[in-house]
Amino acid sequence: MADNADRAAVTIQQSLEATLANRAQLATQAANDDCIDCGDEIPSARREAAPWATTCIECQSIREMRGKHVRQS
User: Fold this and answer.
1) In this structure, are residues 38 and 61 in contact, taking their beta carbons and an 8 Å threshold?
2) Which helix (H) or strand (E) holds 4?
3) If you average pLDDT over residues 3-31, what whole number do you get?
4) What is the rounded CA–CA span in Å between residue 24 and residue 38?
5) What's this model's pTM, rounded to 2 decimal places?
6) C-alpha distances in angstroms, 62 versus 24, 27, 35, 65?
7) How many CA atoms lie within 13 A of 70 on its CB side?
8) Which residues make beta-bridge pairs with 41?
9) Which region among 19-23, 35-39, 42-46 has the lowest average model confidence (pLDDT)?
10) Angle at 36 between CA 64 and CA 44, to 5 degrees
11) Which of 30, 35, 45, 46 is the most exposed place for a label (fewest CB within 10 A)?
């Protein structure tokens, strides 16, 4: 019969495995040097600062503004 510590260990292990799988998927997506929104090449400085980035800085800014419901002029 499993006790609380055993159940917690299983939950932690499952969470860790899910996180690692997610990171591997992000790394695969980020292997592309082009922005997924506009198709332009993602600058190398952004690649170095955020290797997981799938968008250029401008497109990411637009995404963040839309997320905050800010209207662009």
Assistant:
1) no
2) helix 4-30
3) 83
4) 24
5) 0.51
6) 26, 22, 13, 5
7) 9
8) 34
9) 19-23
10) 85
11) 45
